[in-house]
Hints:
Blueprint: E1 26-30, E2 35-38, E3 41-44, H1 45-48, H2 57-62, E4 68-72, H3 75-78, H4 89-101, E5 104-111, H5 126-140, E6 146-151, H6 153-162, H7 173-197, E7 202-208, E8 212-214, H8 219-228, H9 231-236, H10 247-264, E9 271-275, E10 282-285, E11 296-298, E12 303-308, H11 319-331, E13 335-340, H12 346-365, E14 370-375, E15 381-382, E16 394-395, E17 399-400, E18 407-408, H13 410-417, E19 466-469, H14 474-485, E20 490-493, H15 503-513, E21 517-520, H16 534-555, E22 559-564, H17 587-600, E23 606-611, E24 614-615, H18 623-632, E25 637-640, E26 643-644, E27 647-648, H19 649-661, E28 666-669, E29 676-677, H20 678-688, E30 696-699, H21 727-738
Amino acid sequence: MFHDATPAGAPLARGSLSPSGRPPLELWGGAECTVNRTREGYRDQSRLTGHHHRPDDLDRLAALGIRALRFPLLWERVAPRDPAERDWRWSDARLGRLRALGVRPIAGLVHHGSGPAYTTLLEDSFAPGLAAHAAAAAQRYPWIEDWTPVNEPLTTARFSALYGHWYPHLRDERACWIALLNQIDAVRLAMAAIRAVNPRARLIQTDDLGRTWATARLAEQAAFDNTRRWLTWDLLCGLVGPDHPLWPRLAVLGLRDRLERIRDQPCPPDVIGVNHYLTSDRFLDHRVRHYPRETVGGNGHDAYADIAAVRVLDPVPDGLAGALREAWARYGRPLAVTEVHNGCTREEQVRWIAQAWDTCRSLRDEGMDLRAMTAWALFGSQGWNTLLTGPGVYEPGAWDARTDPPRITAVGQLLGRLSPEAPAPVLTGSGWWQRPLRLLHAPARHAVAMTGHRAHARPAPGTGPLLILGATGTLGQAFARACALRDLPCRLVGRDQLDLAHPAGIRAALARHQPWGVINAAGWVRVDAAEDQPDHCMAANAAGAIALATACEELGLPSVGFSSDLVFGESGAEWLVESDLPAPLNVYGRSKSAMERGVLALGGRHLVIRTAAFFSPDDRHNFAVHALDRLRRGHPVRAAGCVVSPTYVPDLCHGVLDLLIDGEHGLWHLANGGAVSWAGFAARLADACGLDAGLVEEVSGAELGWAAARPMRCALGSERGAPLPALDHAIARFAQALA
Length: 739
């Protein structure tokens, strides 16, 4: 079972208490130990800086008063070729020396890595594989109590699967989320394996913590970034449930089950490890012409420059102190600064270390449970200026490892003089991040205030999520996917959360979810079955829908309901538009016509969308998918000769969302600008997919066993000027999506 081995307030530091009665602020350390994988192979920082070959490095750092060392027991180094072939010789010797020196190891198992060559961040084998490695490490070193199974899971997922810098070099959002969840599962499984050996084992979970500011146009993107940055700790703390702003975005990508498992079996960190650099805080600016080309990217909707906030914001952001205050307010768990390093000239490195130490002391005086500051990259790093994708340049740390033996720098000398109860030794001058020269671009003095985009994006014109009814239906799920693609927070609910048959429950659900708008994608969809169950169909499609719209009207909320081309009868018209009068031929059509009258009579901001003949690559039960499945097997397709206007569901969703955000209301026809018989539709699908259209046979509705009467021609046109893309274009995209 995954559990929290140590209460949130339990002491972690060893040794005597400070005069204040609290454990003293500890100095921790770490040699840059990343083992990352690129197209050229693995890059091992311990080897590139020479630390791997210098066992006496441990004596050097212990002499500075370092109490704990982030130590690499990395999977890629211990078992690079075969999980059953583990080589502990390097770690045996060094961990033995650390014990003799009285320095606690904080064991790391993966550090910006994707595992050995026999797994990757995207494979199901990653989490159980790391857990097996963790079990072996704990069995070999049962005395180690502090562990970081995966360093910076979110940062690694972004760099590997969203930005393409590291293996597997992808730029795909879903792959990024999978990489993150695999690492979170790896932490959970690894800690369970470790605690089976040592129940006192503690999780010190690290990730980079920066904040994003932006111009007003990009406040939505900044809001997303400022929500995403917490995900490593939110997931481990069991905070990512249906109420989390990012739940809908991940759930519609097929990750709901995994989120639920993590939420139900969390593994809260004993210490939140904050890694923060001078460039961690970012500023997004849509005015791209003001910035170098290499800084410009985008999100698929907006192009923008992504700049270190310290280089452009005036006044300067509050940096490390602000990040720590936010983390303390969010989690109320013990904190540690687990990486402090500045790749700059020596005096600037010293100033940054000193300022970070004094910041930690000040925050402890404010009452924050802040356990330690970690001097990082003690023996330097190689190639971070290329994001570890090439040789790059060497940056010294507390020692300059380009000499033999390594030469202690002013950083190391400062570390040796730090006192838990006294400020850092006085240094002359201020850091570049505090001086005017920090501004490399025209100062942005009018960025949206942090409070304007601290939480996840909220869509105009409201402040809550968009509520979507119909969690199990094709249309409801399609709307949730469209909202995720457009970064519109939404909540997809089923009948167990909002039952249209109970008006009182409708109002309670709306009060509970506080939406800015409601899309009713629920209802009765079985046209022929309605002939035998008219009361049920009318209750779902008319009474329930009207009750929902009425509740929305009382709360001043806009709503969307869906009607059908089957509200029309045998009119003989070539095209039917919004002002044409309904004359339904069947129960289903009458239920939709009744819904239209009831909802439109309310006035207000209610949309009623008439549409027809859905097809979608995400629904295995629609006519188009069924027809193509038969054609691929060489089977004939029997289809009716009545004329309809097929509607591609993704286009429908985007069209409806546009109308809703635009504040439109009333009755609209939305279909893909075409009129074709069901048989003709099947033939055009066959042509688009390279299949034999000759297998399509036109038959009557009676031959197909239809119980409900349909009009022979029911082509939807529009007099309101909101057509969807042409049918042929939609069919081509549908075929491409299936392929």
